[in-house]
Design a protein that fits this description.
Its EC number is 2.7.7.23. The protein is of the alpha/beta class. Helix content is 26%, strand content 24%. The radius of gyration is 24 Å and the shape is elongated. The chain starts with a helix and ends in a 15-residue tail after the last strand.
């Protein structure tokens, strides 16, 4: 999930990406290190005691070189559980932040049911300019504050020279006894700094906290991925029954039949027909192949081959170019 968040930063040309890890640190670090693009320049730092989002941000800042006294560069803070975030949205957040010289800029959403989210509190539009004053967590909000439907998405752009000092002055004086990153917004606004906000669609900024939300996010990501390939010349007889990981690469004039599942770093060459009811994980399928009603993992299929129906391609196996396997075939492992 965090890889989708990292990829949303691609067009910004970030200098460094710091991933703050805690529970399951070894697993997260291993996966991200293997899959992160080189442009992200990913490094890791562990929050050994989970003392809130403010403490996590401070731990993350500790790995940046130099001090923050005269560094007015932009620091983007994102949660690792927002896989639907679009690059254009982050670009707009940073562009708005820099163009207006804000101390901090929030990404916010308006929700019909804002339950569970921190509320964005603004100055009254009649007496002020609607500027952001603070964020209040739901458990600490008054009845009037709970009536606000503009919510904090936990996605921010900060000036580094203002973020660091503000984090170091946070207090855990709240119902959770934690250091809230949200308190930085009120602190900066209280000192007279300007805090901006950019509105984003709620479906794009929603976090994933359980398996139901994960399934919804996967459905949306699948729809985006399928649409991209359809617009680039791939034929799908039924996109709703076609599952393609974002790491998969497809050639020109590929046809995917219903029940096709392509996962991992699978590569499918030009002119191939895959499916129906075929699952390929980490396979390389060269051009002009047919693979039907089959399962393969980390296997290679040579150009012009016909695999299946009901073939099994185990890890390390290969089908020679031009070969027709026939039904119920198991490829030998080289």
């Amino acid at each position: 999930m965090v890889m989708h968040v990292i990829h949303s930063l691609e067009s910004l040309k970030v200098d460094r990406t710091v991933v703050v890890v805690g529970h399951g640190a070894d697993r997260v670090t291993k996966t991200v290190r293997e899959e992160a693009p080189t442009w992200a320049n990913v490094t890791f730092v562990e929050q050994q005691v989970q003392r809130g989002t403010g403490d996590a941000a401070l731990v993350g800042l500790s790995i940046f070189p130099g001090d923050d006294l005269d560094d007015d560069s932009t620091v983007i803070v994102l949660p690792g559980d927002t896989p639907l975030l679009q690059p254009d949205t982050i670009d707009n957040l940073v562009a708005t932040h820099v163009a207006n010289g804000y101390a901090a800029t929030l990404l916010t959403s308006q929700m019909d049911d804002p339950s569970g989210y921190g509320r964005v509190i603004r100055a009254p539009s009649k007496s002020g300019d609607g500027r952001v004053l603070r964020i209040v967590e739901q458990r600490d909000a008054s009845a009037d504050e709970l009536a606000t439907n503009e919510v904090n998405t936990s996605i921010y752009a900060f000036r580094r020279d203002l973020l660091g000092p503000a984090l170091r002055h946070l207090s855990p004086d709240n119902s959770q006894g934690e250091y809230y990153l949200t308190d930085v917004i009120g602190a900066l606004a209280g000192m007279g700094h300007r805090v901006g906000a950019v509105l984003a669609p709620p479906g794009e900024t929603a976090g994933v906290n359980d398996r139901w939300q994960l399934a919804l996010a996967e459905r949306e990501l699948r729809a985006r991925t399928n649409r991209r390939w359809l617009l680039n010349g791939v034929t799908m007889l039924d996109p709703r029954q076609t599952f393609i990981d974002v790491t998969v690469q497809l050639g020109r004039d590929v046809t995917l039949y219903p029940g096709t599942i392509l996962q991992g770093k699978t590569v499918v060459g030009d002119g191939c027909e895959i499916g129906p009811d075929t699952r390929l994980v980490g396979c390389v399928i060269n051009q002009d192949c047919t693979v039907e009603n089959s399962v393969g993992r980390d296997a290679v299929v040579g150009a012009g081959a016909h695999v299946g129906p009901y073939a099994h391609l185990p890890t390390g196996s290969a089908v020679a170019a031009g070969q027709s396997t026939g039904a119920f075939y198991t490829a030998p492992v080289e």
